[in-house]
Amino acid sequence: MVGNVLVWIVWFLAAGACLGSGIAVVSLTNPFYSALALIGNLASLAVLYLLLAAEFLAAAQVLVYAGAVMVMFVFVIAYLGGRADAPWAGGSPVMQTAAVVAAVALLVEVVVVLGLAWGDDLQDSAEVSDAFGSPAAIGELFLTDHLLAFEITSIVLLVAAIGGVVLGTTHEKGRP
Amino acid sequence: MSGPGVGWYLIVAAALFGIGSLGVMLRRSPLIVLLSLEIMLNGANLALIAFARQHGDLDGQIFALAVMAVAAAEVAIGLGLIVAMARRDMALDVDQASALRG
Amino acid sequence: MVTGAWICLLAPLGGALAITFGGPWISRRTAGSISTLTTFLAFGGALIAFFGLWSRDAEDREQLSTAYTWLAAGDFQVGFEILVDPLSAVMMLVVSGVGGLIVWYSMGYMAGDEEERRFFAYMSLFVFSMLLLVQAGNFLLLLVGWGLVGLASYLLIGFWHKRPEAVAAAKKAFVMNAIGDATFALAIVLLVWNTGTLELLGVFGEVDALSGTTVNLVALGLLGGAVAKSAQIPLHTWLPDAMEGPTPVSALIHAATMVTAGVYLLVRAHPIFEAAPDIQSLAAILGAVTLLVAGLVALVQWDIKRVIAYSTMSQIGYMFLGAGIGAYGFAIFHLMTHAFFKALLFLAAGVVIHHLSDEQDIRRMGGLKSALPRTHLAFLIGTVALVGLPPLAGFWSKDAIVASAFARGDALGWTLFVAGLLGVLLTGAYSFRLYFAVFQGKPVTVTQETGESHHAQHAEGPLSMLVPVGILAVLSAIGGLLSIPGVWQPFTHWIEETGEPLVEATARQDYLTSAISVALGILGIVLARRAFLLDRQLVSTPSAWRIFERKLYFDELYDALFYRPAAALANALRRRVEEPVIERSLDEIGSGTILASGGLARVQSGLLRTYALAIAFSVCVLVVVFVAVR
After folding, report:
1. Is the minimum CB–CB distance between A76 and chain C shorter than 8 Å?
2. Span A49-64, pLDDT tens digits
3. Which ipTM score applies to this complex?
């Protein structure tokens, strides 16, 4: 019983941090602060993943996303310096209203659908063992059922690395 | 499991997705747009993992891991683009990058 | 014997192909020789076939020979098969014999023309087509031959294709023949549908099993084809215009052979017509009407070839009359004698025209008796044979037909009898009007008219032109002696094996008819002579003259009935439908596409955020759709 309450409290805190930092990312004008807010977002998501019995993924989230991707972001922001400043500006009011409407509509739709389905499909969660979400389980799946996805993901990363190099190269004689 | 049911997680995921899409549609700096894209992807990841938990099937988590890898690749390329734009002294403004106008 | 028939059929085809593929590498004279020789070779083949048939018993005289089966579908088979029987043997002889003489003649007549090779290729093609028509053993092959002769006629009428009148005349002939071809084809469809076979002998065996309406429709279709091909009323207006072609063409196609194809069909398909007696009588009536109308119109024509053309129309009317009342033997006999003397007349007229450097108006001719003595004699023989005075050919054949009408006896028979006799009167009048105008009277030389002196240079003509004329003159004189009623009738007995005549005149009826008709013929000649000596025309009232000269306004009638509405409709369609709808719609498709794509292109703004907005909205919609579908 206490554990239950604890779970709920943790959940609310994590969810709140998640959404708050998300809003912060979107609305801050200084891109560095936005990146920091995103790091917070990722961390709170990792907590949520833990609550969902996805330990490996929580660790991967922190290591890869927060550790590597965000570092890249921060590097670039540092490189750009003042040029990266992002004031709120522009766009016709019509478009802005439309954008808000679209996002809200999406959220409302999802809530409605969930409400409709809540009674039927989302009641029970399956029983899972302790090994659910462990690195061993995920690794086993990656090397047996989802081997193709594994390999292709590695190719995607390779391509991205090559693409990054290509984009970053400067040619002589001032040709871009 | 006790604690919030899958539905709660899904609401958070949908909210994250919506916030991210707002960022994509409303901000003019490509950096912020990329960050918002990350938020959207994470919202999708959360939904995947929540459903994986509900069905007791690890495939959702595998999918989420693949999404993470792809997101990382995409960020690398996106940042490379921004750096290339900066190098050429282009304004970092998505509204001005409209050379694909038909 | 059947080999002879095949030689007869294929020799002219070989000639035509040889000339065609020889092209410019053979001389013009060689082309003419090839054509003439192959036609005479065909005549040889026809003789072999004829004698082969003659040597057999009467029952054995139907020979079918199939080259190959073209179409076999279930029980239905049709192929390239020829039928050699008494009727087709006679037709083969006439076509190849007279044809050979005319082709020989045209070597002299067409000498010097630049496109002589084309001419002889077409002539050989025509001879082949006509032989195919008369030898065909099934209706399909008959129709093929039928169409091919129409084609050859078109090609030859329009031979001098730089003359617009010739081209127009060729088109007119072809279109009017096409009407007949259509009815013929419809009749064939009915036949195959109801009897399941197209072989001549097969069909004739099945005729009794057909219903009355069917057989009447089939007969009507066949009659339509015959009327068009033989230029009988109402499909006759093409024949006078066809005189635009060279004179040998007029002689061969429009006197001796092609226009007689209708008569051949009437006699060949007589079982069908006998089962549809109303249609057979209709054929006789049309023949009688044509006979009279053509005779009247011939009285007022000024062109020498047109007079002879109308005369042809009139004589074929006699043949239709004969076939319509069932006197098959005499109809074919008249076909043969008519081929002799009509070809003779045309060829002699050709000599005249040639001599006068292509002058064809008889008002500008006269007194040629002294300049062209041999031609004059030939022409006179031909004209007398045409009128039907004994002992020349026309007498024996034409009077026999009229006598058969007499023998028929009922109201129709009497009407036809009177019409036939009146026709003799008219024939005497117009033919001798022509003779007197051309050969008698004051000699008009070309010098008098045009001030140039061509006259002295032209001899009567080369040997290649005179010999055929001579042979035809002899045939016109003695050819009729193959049928002397009451004494000797080998010809009609020969034909009667293929078709029993429905009427037979007694000797008394024969002699009576002959007497009256000779009297009327001489009366016609006397009237013509009187008019000539008084320098007046036979038809003196101006209104009558106008009606006859305009050929009873048939051309104007057809123009108003058929051509004007069709042309008006075509013009209206062009103005109302083709231009605004079809042409402009093509333009508008182009400009409309450009407009639409211009509008659509504005969606591509190039702005990232707009695209993102669009995607977001689409996702919202899609969520609803997915949920609803579930």
Report:
1. no
2. 999 889 999 999 999 9
3. 0.90
